[in-house]
Amino acid sequence: MGSATESAPRQPATAPRRQFGDGAVQHRSRWWNFGSRFARNPLAVVSLFIVLGMVFTGTFAPWLAPYDPTEVNYTEVEQMPNLRHPLGTDDHGRDQLSRVIWGARTAIIVAPSATVVGLVLGLFFGSLAGYFGGWIDNVVMRVTDVLFAFPGLLFAILVASTIQPRVEAWLMTFESLGSFVKAGYAEFLVVILALSLVGWAGLARLIRGQILQLKEEQFVEAARAIGARSSRIILRHLLPNALAPIIVSISMGLGGAILAETTLSFLGIGINPPTPSWGAMIYQNFNFWRHPAAPVLLWIPGLIVASLVFAFNFIGDGLHEALNPHLD
Amino acid sequence: MIRHLLRRLLWLPVLLLIVTMITYALGFYGPGDPVKIVMGQRYDPETADRVRHELGLDRPFFIQYGDYVWGLLHGDLGKSIKYRRPVIDLIKSRLWVSFQLNAAALVLGVFAGIPLGVLAAIRHHTWVDYVIVTGTVAGISFPTFVVAPILLWFLAARFRILPPGGWDGLLSTKAVMPIIVLTMGIVAVFVRQTRANMLEVVGQDYVRTARSKGLAERAVVIVHALRNALIPLLTIFGLMVGGLVGGTFIVETIFGIPGIGRLGVQSFFARDYPVIMALTTLIAVAYALANLFVDLGYSIIDPRIRYG
Fold it and tell me: Do you find a cis peptide bond into A112, omega within 30 degrees of 0?
């Protein structure tokens, strides 16, 4: 009896071994196992809730925010926090709480888009380079070498500041998109492009390394022997097996993208007012830091950004542990 | 080894050529006309054309680019459009300021980070470890542009302990806050990496052998474990040079320090392309050299590494 209770905590680790060979059950229990491993890491779970909170806030921003975040009101400029404006107002009388809430929407648009674009580029070039090798590999690797020669942020600044007017002019050529540009949404596209151009190279290298390793495995040889096409081997056999490190790096990348977007916006090269962005808010409130309400307005967007970066790092760690059971 | 070194050295100029070309192309096809920005309200097309012609901005891309590279090879970085002075003069004095700031942060980061990392590793799973690790994660997660304004508000506005900005050389109270902000992130990375490496090394056979020989714990940690745990830190050191660039841009802007970071941000807003290109090239050279030295350092420190 005593020994049974002692071995109880080890249940999840031994469970899949017993069910090995039973395809359907094993498949389901692998996800179950992954979930329970992730759930055992309390920091990762808390982090997941932080991120879900941001996604929720961003999605339902129009219903959560008490005011229109871009509405200018010159009779209520630079107010201290009060009942009408819980976080006060900025130098144009815009409600700060609404701007913080809408900042989440900016974040959930920019960071995932930049990550997805970077991921697609990274997957494509990384798997081509890893699978075919030869001159393709050489070209892709030299291109990433060049990208790595620029420190990431510098390259993002360089790209964002140079392509902005071009992108805006290009979007203006489409009649229907004119209002889109005037509303400042072209900035989103610029930041997304800049960040994904910086981000894909690291992913491409990671995926290439994974594929180089995996393609020596026997199941790849077997697939080739039965006449599977290269595209099928890459998509069905190689990439699914390289998923774990890719997922971890996506999680870390999302945090990095939020940080990069806010940094660019802080420097005035990313998302600028009136469109709400946490980075630009920090800059605004740091600019009038003698204003009595400013410290609060520094703390709030600052803490939000920091806790999100925090959260994505912990989720990455948690995923890393949950996806690599042998690490225990 | 020699072949690897040669290949790396030959690749360096090619890399720099590509870097300058990308930067130049971005500036050439990129945004706003610098002449227009400099002239501002006093813009008139005729003068603008003349200025453009004088600066050689009306020639085709490859001629301008070739001219630029030729100048670079002769130590001529071009002339700033905004300041109307040779870029090299602008950069020279500022580079020294930024170098001092970053070197101080890097040295402090290493000397604080490695001992803390070792401490966390030998006190693994105790409160000492947890405190250090939590601090590390905070140090990595808090962006520079959040920490700096908060410190500024706290130490300069609220309590008036330190001056809010400016630059009087490295050994003045004005340098304290920027160095703290720059060091924070570096310490965090070094602690994290040292701790992880130490934990890995401590489990190795040769550490057990050293212990069973009866060596003092201090000798085991320092002579046997730490020496081997330090090797992977070299890579971090190379990456750090790149990471510092971002920090420098923000810290110098916030604290009003006359270094290349602030010059960079100002030049981006003024579309002062000769300055931007010079800075980009400079940073790329520093970064590439740092990584080259890291690679070479690796093969000297760790004889197991051989390049094909």
Answer: no
Give the dihedral sign, CA A38/A43/A44/A47: positive
| ipTM exceeding the 0.90 mark | no
Domains of chain B, start order:
2-73 (no CATH), 89-301 (1.10.3720.10)
At the topology level of CATH, where does A39-315 sit?
MetI-like fold (1.10.3720)
| Residue in A184, A247, A163 with CA at minimum distance from that of residue A210 | A247
B201 interfaces chain A, CB cutoff of 8 Å = no
For residue A98, with 0-12 CB atoms within 10 Å meaning exposed, 13-18 middle and 19 or more buried, which class applies? buried
Residues 6+ apart with CB under 8 A from A251: A312, A315, A316, A319
Chain B contact present for A289, CB below 8 A: yes
B80: helix, coil or strand?
coil
Give the predicted TM-score (pTM) of the model. 0.81
Residue corresponding to tokens 């301008």: B64
A187-203 per-residue burial string, b: 16 or more CB within 10 A, e: under 16: bbbbbbbbbbbbbbbbb
Report the residue of chain A nearest B8, measured CA to CA: A145
Q: Mean pLDDT over all residues of chain B?
A: 82
Structure tokens at B192: 């994290």
Q: Kindly report, residue by residue over A222-279, the tens digit of the pLDDT.
A: 988 898 888 888 888 888 888 888 888 888 889 889 988 998 888 888 888 888 888 8
Residues A64, A56: Cα–Cα separation, whole Å: 10
B284 touches chain A (CB under 8 A): yes
Nearest by CB to residue A282, choosing from B27, B149, B265, is B149
